[in-house]
Amino acid sequence: MSADPQDLLREAETRLERLAADAAQPGNAIDAAVAALVDAIRAGGVIQAFGTGHSEAFAMEIAGRAGGLIPTNRIALRDIVLHGERTADVLTGSLEREPWVVDELMAVSPVTEDDVFVIASNSGVNGSVVGVALWAKEHGHTVIAVTSIDHTSRVEPKHPSGKRLSEIADVVIDNLAPYGDATLQLTETISAGAISSITAAFIAQLLTLGVARTLVEAGEVPPMYISANIPGGDEHNAALEARYLDRLRRGA
Asked: pLDDT (tens digit, 9 = 90+) per residue, 23-36?
């Protein structure tokens, strides 16, 4: 079976091209998500990004990076230790599956009424992810999901509600990852070439670009980060972050 770097490149290119093409179609999910994000920013809200496991990389693409939007915040499971009363031993690999973590996590998260949630999960069924989505909806927030429709439709939810992230969100963006995430078959039982992190990063940048372009076309100045590693970057970023006081977290 062929599984070389060019094969992986083709798997990535095919999906990225499809995402870009879909984003150009009328009534697409990217545009719907961008509209919700723009509304939140114009209302003074913050984009709350959440993902667990490798999907936390998506939240990092949304929140607090050069070329990204200032009014963004990354919620992470470790917050219950950093900002709550839990000790580090609770941070095990299985924590993302636990529904109980949600109440403690949201109790220490700087969320206000005009915020919008963007939640990434390839499987879309773990207790923490589904729980945060349910919490956000119960508190009147718009929820945007980035998930694998192929994968999530073939696995059972782990939250007591019996729901998947895709069944809760107002807008669902398919990351186009296959069931199991890996795209290249090495043997009958071994696969490699996981793709969801690549497509999720592209989706995050499509959303950022869409918000920035929408605001520019409306004659507004989008609140964007510039690199802290160029002259004046720190000063520019700090001045814009100050508008949101203690609502943004930029931890190491």
From this structure: 999 999 999 999 99
